[in-house]
Structures
1.
Amino acid sequence: MAKSILVLAEQLRGGISDITYEMLGAGRAIAQALGVPLEAVLLGSGTSQLASSLGAADKVFVADNPELDLAAPETVAEVVKTLVDKTGADIVLVGCTNVSLGIGSILAARSQMPLVNFCRAIKVDGGGLVCTSQLFGGKILSDVKLADGRGIIGVYPGAFPIEQGRSDRTPPTEAIDVSVQPSKIRFKQYIEPASGDVDITKQHVLVAVGRGIQTQDNVQLAEELAQALGGAVCASRPVIDQGWLPLTRQVGKSGMTVKPRVYLAFGISGAPEHWEGMQNSQCIIAVNTDPKAPIFDGAHYGAVADAVELLPILTEKVKMRKG
Amino acid sequence: MNILVILKMVPDTVEELNVSADGKSLDSEFLRFKLNDPDEHALEQGLILKEKSGGKVTVIALDAPEVDDVLYTALAKGADRAVKIPVSQAGLGTKATAKVLSDFFSSGAGAVTPDTLVLVGTYAIDDLEGELAPMLAVHLGLPYLGVVSSVAASDHGLIVQKEFAGGLRGEFEVELPAVLGIQSAEKPPRYVPVAKVRAVMKSAKIDEVEIPAPTDTVCLDVQRSYKPEAAGRAEIFEGSPEEVADKIVDALAKSGVI
Amino acid sequence: MDPVKINLVGMPGIVCLWILTVLAFGVFGWRVSRLIKLIRQGRYEDRFDNPGRRLLHALKHVLLQPRIFNERAIGLPHFLIFWGFVIYATCFNWNLLRGLFPFIPIPYPEELRIVGLFLEVFSVLVLISLVVAAGRRMFFPPPHLHLSFDANVILVLIGLLMLSTLFGSGFRVVADGGHGSAWAPFGTLLSKAFGSVPPESARRLAIGMWWLHMALVLAFLVYLPYSKHLHLLASPFNVFFSQAATRPVGDLTVPGAKEDMSAGASRWQELTWKQLFGGFACAECGRCDRACPATASGHPLQPQQIIQKVKNHMVRYGLEGADGTVPKLVGEVIREDEIWACTTCMACMSRCAVWNEQIPLIVALRRHLVSQGQVEKNIQDMLGNLQRYGNSFGKSDRMRAKWTQGLPFKVKDARKEPVDIVWFTGDYAAFDPRMIEITQTTAKLFNLAGLDFGILYEAERNSGNDVRRVGEEGLFEMLRDKNLDAFSRVKWKNGTRIIVTTDPHSYNTLKNEYAFPDGGVVVRHYTELLDELIRGGKLNLNRRLSGKMTYHDPCYLGRYNGVYEPPRRVLAALGLELVEMPRSRDKSYCCGAGGGRIWMEDGPNIKERPAENRIREAISLNEVKTFVVACPKDIAMFRDAVKTTGAEGKIEVKDIAELVAEAMNVEDRKPV
């Protein structure tokens, strides 16, 4: 029988990441089903204050130590392992985010616990758990059984609702004493994205372009539609990597997370890394030549069409409608 | 610098992926393999590093269909040595893969020297059991950092950039030897013409290093695999581009943005 | 009145002539041998096959110069200057022989009345031509005509030669008593002006004119090899050695190559001798630049400059031995954006009056860039897709025949069932969503005609035509070998083995570059096949279409392979009235897609894309509502251009197969 569930809370520059609440929400549901406590661990400077927002947990372990800000993954994994050994937690939730990537794997390699990565759903099944993982760029789902209910679960961002991980109550905290070994990996500084560009997270309408836009010249077609709609252009990683748009316009895992009223996706297939950044848009309209593109599985409206062909027509129609 | 790049073959998602009769694994009939995307970037970053700071690039892969082509291509791009470990990648979980690779490093065919840098794609699309780079780092007792998008040599080792989110990056100092998970190279992977690859196939050799196959290939119990249901499937607008555009404009109007 | 029987500078004239001749020919020979040595540093290429056909080709294009007449203003003047030159060269040699060997029992040419008359008449015609040529250079220079000092030198020189002939004749008439003769009409005319000159002085002046004439020609001989006028010596050889004399121009194979040519040329010595030689034949006339769609669009490419830059670079560092670091041929002498701008449309080569070969040269430079991985990202992705999936769309090869799913009949798999015809659809027809309907229509036409045809399904690969022209030779070979392997597995019925292509680019490479091993394959474009079917009564056109349309000749069908009539006959059979655009047939204007350009970015300085220019040309024809094409890439390019030029509603781009289907009411018919 399980003893407790531990969530590795994630914070960056003094702010709790969304993934933390998503994990707390998911963890709360399992904890209830299993009848065990849900605990969280929060590391880094100023975390004694920050911990108060993790009320969904029954208890928060806090290591308020500036040396743990952006510490090497092995250092964080070591802290978590010590805590697991101490509390006997048998389920550990870690975010599949850029910030936390690798911590779960190190923990799995160092402990006897298996890791289930890229998890989008967790079900309690008897004494064990069934985790649904998203593989092969979202094309295949696999249900993995953790029969004895022990394991590390890598939680995919955006898979669980944030709301269920938020709570007004202030959780009990317990400071843990961590002696941080000098690491061979040292954080030096942040590199900010070039500023002065449009803030795509504040737009009501986003016209997003992906690989299907084909050429840099065609980005202009999206720009014209965005202008007609009073919004801005953003893009998936391939377009940014080509240098056709600045980094500030990237939506997805390494880019921005956006929630506009309308997200128009042109020539974007909908890989999980992109989906992660725009799935909470109120209305998603996708245009892609491939009828099997995964983006159609989550969008509200879709059209199987060539983005390059459709864009100028759409721009005209929008202008006409607006008068 | 002794640069080792781990190359892993993964199913090509351009091909239709189907689940086999056992309901758990991928149907091998239509399966084709290609180099994991981030691994291609890891190789490129290794080559850039070699060009800038000197050193030797060794590429290492487990056996998989089409892996020879990938290894020869790496040699044609500028890698100095290619190693194939004749243990089949198919059906091997991340843990077992990390074990095979760490055995390679202790086999004498590839020692971890003080100037060793192991580059691995930061993730692979089939990393169900976890990412390879951190697991290998644990086996080798080396520091690890992932989601790296730039690596440069410095006095004390390396200066690397890691991506966070929202375009924010962090700069880290990393001491060698180390393992890095590469998200993307500083420059897009280079193109190497077919003739060059063919010439390399004639002149160069792939070293085969025998490593005992692991006894436990996977550590997870997959009960069922399936294609995602089209539950939340979009309402598809049909018709000519004009008609489709009209319907999109209607949808835009409905959501109140025009 | 023998001009050599005088004393000059204290020596007998004949000795002077010998000295001058030996000197002039010596320097000339030495200079020419240095040039030959220079171009022999290039790579070997076999251009010595079939000398008989080469000679006929050279005779036609050197003696009759049909290509010179493609620009009317200068056509006749150049023709006359050329023939004047030939005649004068003959007479010069005659004079020289007679002067050097006085014992030869022949008169001087002018002493034969008929020759004298001929020379006089020609002198005047040439002088008029010179005035026209000089006037054109001074007042109406066409764009891209290179106005060099060299050119003025030759015009002055030719003028002096003509004047010395006429003046010589005039003085001779005075010396002979001033009576004149109908055999020397202009001499007689001029003699009136010299009436006051005493006969003896006139005789000396006539001899002076002879010497002036000879000395000028000998001086010209010395000057010729290192000037742009080497053109007149080199171009006949250039025409003789041209690829088109014995082989299709659509074949980029280098016959007899002794090295691996797939890495292209990074130095001038890595070009073939023929590519180097072309620079000496170039007359800098600018025909190629004026024809080039890349030049017209504002791309930095000028085909003539490519030829000239290679020549000047080679002369500077190979002949003159200039000091300093040799600039890189690719990247410095010729910029990368010049090299990538070419659409390989063949307009330059088909216009060039000396039959230079710009495209193979540009491809050799591209090959070097590709070998260095210096390829723009789009092209890289495309080449990667072609390597892996065999198509530029990056789709699974198993999806290649997906377009057949909408058909009311099954298309045979030619590898499994016997067929007469294998249809090589090409990437755009099979994968581009804009094209699939047209491809299905074509299939229905073939079906209704009762053709026994099949396709290669997933075994078909991109033909490699554009890949080869991008400069990825190894990938071209790989694709070609895979296709040849697929064709070798075709179960042919007994009979003619026909391969029909939709895409003119595939057509070109299959026809000219694949070298099918057993030879017994006929490659047809679908327009040729439709033409045959209609003429053979196999396609029942039960409805006559009406209205005016214009037809765009695809580069790879027209200029490359001379297929002009079949599509026109099809259109005529449908009842449509064809209105030709000003630029049609071999002057057709490229859509801009060829040579891999369809995958490349247009830079920021592009004034007007070729396809847009072409659509505007079509619109300027009155009342033409349909723009007919016979190439899938044309559909893509021109439909885009119709939108970007705002010509929607004014003109519609249609594939010829769609029109045939309309005339047959295909949709109402049951498949066979």
Note: Chain C touches chain A through eight residues (CB under 8 Å).
2.
Amino acid sequence: MSKLRNLSSELLPHDVVFEILTRLPVKSLIRFRCVSKSWYSTITDPIFITKHLNLNNKAKSLSSNNNHNGCLLYDCNKQLCTAVCNGNGNGDPKLTLTSTEVSRFQIPFSVNFYKISFCNGMFLNYGYLRDRMIYLWNPSIQKFKMFANAPISFTAGLAYHSKNNDFKILQIAFHPTFVYNKKKAAV
Amino acid sequence: MSNQSESPNPTSSSNKITLKTSDNEVFEVEEAVAMKFCTVKQYFDDENNNNVTSGTSTTLIPLPNVESHPLAILITYCKKHLEIKANNADNKKEMEIDMEHYEREFLKNVMPQELTELILAANYLNFKEALDFFCRAVASAIQNKSVEYVRKFFGLESDFKPGEEEKLREEFAWSFEGVDED
């Protein structure tokens, strides 16, 4: 590929560069923020990020005949892994259920006994025993945010708000009284 | 790259459309091929609407922003694209496999300078399938490359103030690991 070095005698128009960038993996995009100010603005622009996510979701659903048999596995070494179940074992007792690992992430913060909710590649993790912190985590860019202590007994979910192009954490606390609280998260 | 036409495409009519490039070369192509170039299609449609009496066989469409070299390659690509589509009309999976195979072979014969030329031509002609293919090709060529390589590739220079770039690099140091050598 070293022959590609002297490729550019003419500059490509911005909309073509935009199209090329939407086809790159996240790790490359994070690196290429450093190419120039204009690339930085494009890559960090919410419109670009949304387009990138949609394009990749679409490509995935087209390529893998998504039959909604994905699952999320957690092991004690603070690792999270996404997997796809192979076959459904229906009717045949000899058929064992196996799964194929798709991706694996190291959880970058310490939570014991936690619950997870996820949406558009973002994870919401929270402990429900001693550790009552709430973590909003994006494994693709390896960044997380921490929120203040949650109520003692509560449940939470992560939702995408398309109008604002932002995520919302919905938190339902069980006592002392029923509380419904929305937190806006800048991501 | 040869301009000879392959077996006539079953979906196309016998209508031919003549394209004239910026370097004054004339290409006669099947209507089905020309209609994949949205810019040509638009021109053709406008022409038909404005002048009902003009015969389509005499239409000559000037392409002042496209040279003959990339156009010849795009026409070959387009013909092959239509052929693969026609051969696998009832099997999408087979079509994708054939197309992938053809595109892999295609890239082996394309020089880097040609890729920019081809992208600019496909962009001007608004030939969506080709543009998508070339964008994917560039993306896969640069995805494991360094920032410096990409600057050279796109003819760009860093316009960050001293210190700014270092700060960005530090923030996501892991994204600079495992990068191919230039």
Note: Helices of chain B lie at 31-34, 38-50, 68-87, 92-108, 112-125, 128-142, 147-154, 164-171.
